[in-house]
Amino acid sequence: MSKPAFRYSHYDLNEQRAGTVIEITLSAIANVRLMNSSNFERFTETLKHQFVGGVAKKSPIRLSIPESGHWHLVVDMEGHNGFAESSVKMIDKTSAPRMQKAAV
């Protein structure tokens, strides 16, 4: 099993209900990837995976859990310089913008 060649921060969000909103605070532009367990495993094996998120150019950003299950959040700097400090918190269910799914 190979690991991604770039540094990343991993947050195990455990079991979450669909519609739960998470807020991610970043110190710099970074990639934000919200993935279910199987896609996170594929990510760690550097395989093609799907996620909700993308390049976060502002902070904080909010993402909505698309379906109930075990979720992981990764913040990484692939394609960007430096390292972004990050934090994640659960917030009340509100209207959070949903970023499109992407494949890497």
Overall 3D shape: globular
Proportion of residues in extended strands: over 45%
Q: What would you call the structural class? A: mainly beta
Amino- and carboxy-terminal Cα gap: 18 Å
* Mean pLDDT over the residues: 86
Q: What is the CATH class name?
A: Mainly Beta
Strand order of the largest sheet: 1-6-3-4-8
Domain count, please report it.
1
Q: What is the helix/strand order? A: EEEHEEEEE
CATH fold-type name: Jelly Rolls
Number of helices: 1
Domain DUF1883: 6-93
Organism: Rhizobium jaguaris
Protein name: DUF1883 domain-containing protein
Pfam family, one: DUF1883
Describe this structure in words.
With 104 residues, the protein is mainly β. The protein has a single domain, classed as Jelly Rolls. Helices cover 8% and strands 48% of the residues. It contains one helix and eight strands, in the order βββαβββββ. The chain has one helix at 37-44; strands spanning 8-16, 21-26, 30-36, 50-56, 61-64, 69-76, 86-91, 101-103. The strands form two sheets. The protein has a five-stranded antiparallel β-sheet with strand order 1-6-3-4-8. The longest helix is centred in the middle third of the chain and has 8 residues, at 37-44. It is globular, with a radius of gyration of 13 Å.
